[in-house]
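Re-run with default settings, no changes from the original entry. Doing this only to confirm the output is reproducible before filing.
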Amino acid sequence: MKARIALLGGILAALLLGVFAGQAPRAVSAAPSATASYPPIGNYVVLFAKIRSVFRSHRPPPPYETYELFRKQTTDYGYPDYNDTYQVDYWCRNSDRACLKRKLYHLGAIGRMRFERAAFNEDYDPGPPTADIFQRAPATPRPAAFKPTPEPSYTPLPTIIVVKALYDPDYEITDVTREGPLLDVRVKPRRTPMRNRLRELWVDARTLEIEKFTATDRLFVFGNGSKKIYPVLFTCTMKRLDGYPVITHIEGRVGGGYAYDGKHVTYDYKKIRFPKSLPSWYFDASDYGSHLDEAPLTGDQR
């Protein structure tokens, strides 16, 4: 049974930071202490700010990452749908999310090298597993020549004076309940719900590390010269790898009256690795044809 956690205090938007006159500035730690207990004395605005700060203390992700993505879906009758069940191997550069990918089908066929900019909320498979879950979904329609900007580093700012700062979050917490060692934090966007995708967070009550979250996404259906978009709710499981939070599993449910194959879909991210470097031609599709003999190994070839 969930134990409800009462709202403490009014919606304050200020955090007091300060040092004594004459002291050198000191950094404010983004991560809570090992003995911290949550929710903290304060209010939901502060709690959300701390959760996001802990997550972003691990940003930006490593320069390169590789992973295998396993997609499974069922038919409208509940049977495995092998036409849209497959594996895709990715080699990504995180500065601009440029990726080389190769698709493996259930009968063993291996697809050609393809270029993609890994992202959620697009008309292709979601990723990468190190995605910033607090980042807004792209505006639609987006420019044809869209190119993501590099993630900034979230180094905590030094304390220089006693200040009262207004914090204007994209979300507000609507409820917090305790589930054993976790806090179940329900949120709703304060603006542009299509772009601010988070709906619920399960966080470690002691460290505020995110263990699971739900977020909106979209399913794009093409046919007869038209495109229809259906809302999807993703429930994502996370773990830490080399100190970075990564998504390992996604359960997707399609809504909006969608009643066809693939109403329930799952994604599993496996063999996530952070290599020191990758060949530069991986991220230039025009070079793929001249490197056919150097195509990276996939699946059981690795």
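Residues 44-56 form the longest helix (13 residues). The CA atoms of residues 33 and 207 lie 7 Å apart.
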